[in-house]
Amino acid sequence: MKGNMEERACQLALYIIENKATVRAAAQKFKISKSTVHKDLSERLPAFNRPLYLQAKQVLEENKAERHIRGGLATRKKYKGE
Fold first, then answer.
1. Which string of DSSP letters, residue by residue, matches 25-48?
2. Hey, which of 10, 25, 35, 57 would disulfide with 21, CB 3.0 to 4.6 Å?
3. pLDDT tens, 2-26?
4. 26 and 16 Cβ atoms separated by less than 8 Å
5. Residue 12 has what pLDDT?
6. H helices, E strands: number in the chain
7. CB of 1 within 8 A of CB of 8?
8. How many angstroms separate the CA atoms of 44 and 20, rounded?
9. Handedness of CA 53, 32, 27, 38 (dihedral sign)
10. Residues 6+ apart with CB under 8 A from 63
11. CA 45 centroid distance within chain
């Protein structure tokens, strides 16, 4: 998936929008680092596809607002042995 960076950025954004995925989930799916996902979405994508960038940014903002809840649930699951 190293090829065309613009194409990869578009595919990442579409994946995140369609699946309401986190940066970590997108990085695992595309087998790239979280830093690369951030760079593709925040620097490369707005340069050539602003509407797609805005949609992906909205999903990422939702994820950011909810991450403390997911972290609490993960901790609870860990110590309850679920």
1. HHHHHHT--HHHHHHIIIIIHHHH
2. 25
3. 568 899 999 999 999 999 999 999 9
4. yes
5. 96
6. 5, 0
7. yes
8. 20
9. negative
10. 20, 22, 23
11. 13
